[in-house]
Amino acid sequence: MVTETRVSQTPTEKAPEPALGTELIPKERYTSEEFMALEWERMWTKVWNIAGRVSDIPAVGDYFTTELGPESFLIVRETPDKVRAFYNVCPHRGNQIRNAGMGHAESFQCAYHFFEFNLDGSKKFVPDEDTFTQGVPQGTALVEVPCDTWGGWVWFNMNPEAEPLRDFLGVLPGHLDPYHFEEQYIVQDKTIEWDCNWKASVDAFNEVYHVQGIHPQLLESLDDIHVQIDLYERHNRYLVPFGLLSPRYQNGDEITDALQGMLRGAGIDPDGFDGTADDVRTTMQAAQRAGTEARGIDVSELNDDQMTDDYHYYLFPNITLNTHHTGVMLFRQRPHPTDPNKMYYDLQNYMRIPEGAEPPPRPPHTQHKHGDLSLGLVLDQDSYNLPRVQKGMNSRAYKGLLINYRERRIRHMHKTIDDYLFGPDR
Ligand code: FES
Ligand SMILES: [Fe+2]
Q: Which of 126, 55, 83 is nearest to 362 (CA)?
């Protein structure tokens, strides 16, 4: 008998560990306006940022805005094959060209004095042009920034000399393309204003050290100890095994309610399951693969562990991806325009659907304050502490972040921030 061995296209080997030291991470990096300004000048304006979904602008003239820190950008489909990104600002007296949101335009007319711009950003019409006795320069246009696509997202970069998006993403497309993000549909799209620095939110998702404390229920269905951490040049990841008990869980034989729920989710009746708790994960992996392929979703590029686990990626500086076999939960952490103690947390869920199936409707984007709505038990547990963390960081008593080995993705992020802030110009 020939057994087919599946070859994953997402590399699983452990990356070499860089030396990152053990010092306290100064708290001012989370609290000071000076540091915030430095981050803006040296990092945010030099990195590639996700603007939104390519599928939100299918037709020529479709556009959406995206906001980052104090800036707003207008993302436009200019031709069937070309998407452009502009600062959302009129070169006349500075009005914003479009309110936040999405829509369709044949051209962009500013709502103040009616300057009008073509979809490529060039000047189309200036009312009473002859009254500008100095002349209206031909170059009076929307200011464009580099723009590209990957994973079904439009990306932009405020640096006119930006390195190509693919160079910025480094190894990540090779890791993540097997999930086919470009074929996934957005099914949840919320923004919540959190009273913490954007990095406090990134940190909350880049370590599993907090699981035993704030998510005790997760010890019944994931292993928070045997988590492989890989730190790459800028980005990083950890691989969290799901569908098994944490070694911290007292009763190592129990097929817990959580495991039973997962079995059910994989199409297996837990009452008829005659394996042990140790067998749940492998049984689920086989069932998920068979069930997913039977629904018409090709997961042949994913390995067996990817059928159950969270391959959790951090795209520097602000994107967190909980990657699962038929969907991804994306967090985009955006800095507040003026206050280092505040941020915007964008929560988006994406789903892969069978070929030829009817796509789910695009949910409207909604905006909320912290605590106004439940994000689900786990995210409520994650977000509960963040405003207190920020308050505590501002205390005279607090000096900086004491980081353990399991939390080293946080240290790695700070090293990468330093590379931007204090290294060669990017
Ligand atoms: S500010 Fe836009 S036309 Fe005057
Ligand atoms: Fe968490």
A: 55
For the chain, report the end-to-end CA distance as a whole number of angstroms.
55
Q: Which residues have CB under 6 Å of ligand 1?
A: 90, 92-93, 95, 110, 112-115
Buried b (16+ CB within 10 A) or exposed e, 218-251: bbbbbbbeebebbbbebbbbbbbbbbbbbeebee
Centroid of ligand 1 to alpha carbon of 123 (angstroms): 12
pLDDT at 183: 94
The list of the chain residues with pLDDT below 70 reads 1-8
- CA geometry: angle 368, 374, 375, nearest 5 deg: 85
Length of the chain: 426
Domain containing 123: what range?
Answer: 49-156
pLDDT of res. 136: 86
The total number of structural domains that make up the chain = 2
Domain-embedded: residue 166: no
- Provide the CATH number for the domain around residue 114: 2.102.10.10
> Which of ligand 1's atoms lies nearest the C-alpha of 94?
1
Which pLDDT value is given to residue 139?
A: 85
Enter the pTM of the model. 0.95
Note the pLDDT of residue 1. Answer: 44
What tokens were used for 128? 């009473």
Single-letter amino acid, residue 184 = Q
CA 290/CA 14 separation, integer angstroms: 28
- Domain co-membership, 40 together with 141: no
> In 3D, which of 412, 415, 413, 411 has the Cα closest to residue 400?
411
